[in-house]
Amino acid sequence: MDQTIDLAGQARSLVRSEREKILCEIPETELHGHLKSLFEKMQPDYTVEVTHGVAEYGKDLVIVKRDKFAAQVVGIVVKRGDIKGKTVGHVEDILSSVERAFKTGTPRELAEIESQMRQAAELGAELKATFAELRVTDVYVVIAGTISVSARKRLKGQLHVPIQVFDLTWLVDNFTDFYPQVFFDGRAQNYIQSEIERLQRTPWMSQKGRNLTDYYVDPTFMSCDIPIDLNLDHLAALAELRRFPFQKLPDIITQKGHVLILGDPGSGKSAALAKMALDKLRVASTQLRAGQRNAPELRIPVFLTARELLSIRSAEELLTLRLKDPRVVPEGARIDCLLVDGLDEIPRKDRLTALQRATELADSQKCSVVVASRRVSDVQAVSNGNYARYEILPFGTGQAIELFKHLASSSIMLEALTEGLQRIQLQIPLFPLSLLLLIRLVEQEKEIPASITELYTDFLDIALGKFDPDKGIQVLFEYHMKEDFLAHLAYGEFFEKDRLAIPREDFDSFLDTYVVDLDINREKLQDFLTDLERAGILDLKDEVEFKHRSFLDYFTASYIYGHREEIEHLHDRIVQIYYEGFWEEVAFFYVGLKMELNDDLMSKLLQHEHVTLSDLVLRLLIGRLLQAGWKSTSSVKRRGIDGAIDVAEPIYTSFLEVCRKRDAVFPSIYSDFLMLSLVEASFSSNFLKTQLADLFAQCISRNDDRALSRSILFLWAEQRLMTPGELRGAVEQCSKLLSGVRAFLPAERARYLWLLKLIGRKDRELEQLITKKLKRLTKVHPDVMKGLLPYRQPLRSLKR
């Protein structure tokens, strides 16, 4: 629902006398600001400025109406109180103001007025003075009160100039229809509504004319932190990997104070933060509408990017960040929650600074802070245990279908999307961005793609007009020129210079060079850029950036792929890009465009020196590259999976060592959960199912402790691709191997049994079987679970 319409309905529910009283009580200078907002809402193409206080020119506001031939300059004279013809002073005051408004200022031609307005707008502070000096052609008298018939006659009889008089009746009617915020603490409501409108347009799909709340589907989150003191509720949550719905997140944020939201590219981190902000803003708006105008504080959220945060020095700057005029910050405004997006999208060296600044600002305001980032290891490191960490998970089938229902234009399209979902859900992670791209493809009657890179490729082919010029962007250039333009821009101006946004002057310089080098018609270039922006690929403002980080990574990879024969030591460069961390998705898309990894590139990826925990994590995630390069040979896939799994145990021990060095006491099962989440993200794909099954069969046939550890990891990755019978048989094989290897220590047996219990949790009979083995083990070794999984209740508490 349109927010203005909603507020207008609320305003009409107030009796007319109450609305009149509210308007009459507003101080005159404050009323000037509300009138400016009213006129701008009524006529968005007019330029309005408050001029009161600039000089004694008689007019309080100025409206400039422009058409192709001339400009009409309207001076606004504002008065408060009732005006009666018998009260000489009141009428004379208005007459004097109107006469001064007509007599002062200099007449100017349209071109001169527009030139002065442009110059003044650039300087900001001079805008009021420029408007005040304009010679008016008409005068409006606005009275926040009543005006008698005799007073109207006197004004029109003594003034031989065009004037219009608007009284309290006119104000009540038009404020109600066009700017009802004035009745509910105008400045506060205006601030809230402008933020709501901005956040509704924040997501990538906004260019389709849809608000975020029109199609938002609540995601699911998973805690990345395990409580040290585990009670019954905690253990039950652990068995479900501590998943919880979006609705619970605000309460968790209030409880924890500092929260880090992690997720893959396109997983909906920005949208989740925007939705949280919208929900809080609507609560604040409702409080104002309920008549709580005299509340001492207005608690509102602030949503900004990490890049914007680096320029902020105080809480006051946070509130004025979106406002051209800091004076319009609502009185009593206080920050309820600080929401910072894109921590991973600033250079590594600035991430700790940004996180510290977010913490300091939030602490100074005694509010909570939420920071969102891609799931990169150095971001988790700089949080230094001060932030509770939660991961945003891919959609389940039900969530994906709910999104389709919101956006499908017909039942036929919904049926096609649902059928396509069944085919791709084990190949493509069901993140919002992937699903939104899929919807766009189905709208164009394209086939369902096989991989995430093909999904991006097919979508961008349509957006760039490769197939049908009537359905994508208008064909102003040949398709390959459009792709080449974006690839050169991404690689040369963003990737090579290690930045995610570029100043407009750098972009214009790039355009000048590009146009000359390729001999492109400059006249058509601006239309081309406008179409790219409308298609949701580029954002062309004072700073130029790609609408979504994934588009930037894709076109950077497209450049490298297109110039792969020219780049020296290409595979070494890809490995460097992958392990450096900031641009690793470029390596992912490069492999996806090539659709395969060959032996040489796989060798270099596996042979890379692993110095840090981040290096180990990226090696374990090599499976994502294999998913992108789904046409790789079976031998390369097997070698890649096997080589990546080699670092699973080093990650396990390294993480425990990091915890010990920081005096952070965690149950060791926490390190297992970290490994399992990485293994699932890396290998759980139909593209790798055959190789996972082969490696599991090979491992389980060996009779040693290392084989069991690897078998469990292979099984965890493959479990969602298996039938219930296959999964049960594999868990029983692991349990049998565990019983047959005498070298296992009791703590190791407890660890592996607990992991098998987790894998078999949906098979009640199998879970009970493993629970019995755990009971027997704890009966012989009562303290065996202390280092692994602290608990207070006896083991029978695990039974559900």
UniProtKB/TrEMBL annotation:
UniProt superkingdom: Bacteria
Any Pfam family hit: nSTAND_NTPase4
InterPro entries: P-loop_NTPase, STAND_NTPase4_dom
Gene3D superfamilies found in the cross-reference section: P-loop containing nucleotide triphosphate hydrolases
Domain STAND NTPase 4 small alpha/beta residues, every copy: 502-555
PANTHER family, per database record: SLR5058 PROTEIN (PTHR46844)
Protein name (record): STAND NTPase 4 small alpha/beta domain-containing protein
Annotated source species: Candidatus Cryosericum septentrionale
Classification lineage: Bacteria, Pseudomonadati, Caldisericota/Cryosericota group, Candidatus Cryosericota, Candidatus Cryosericia
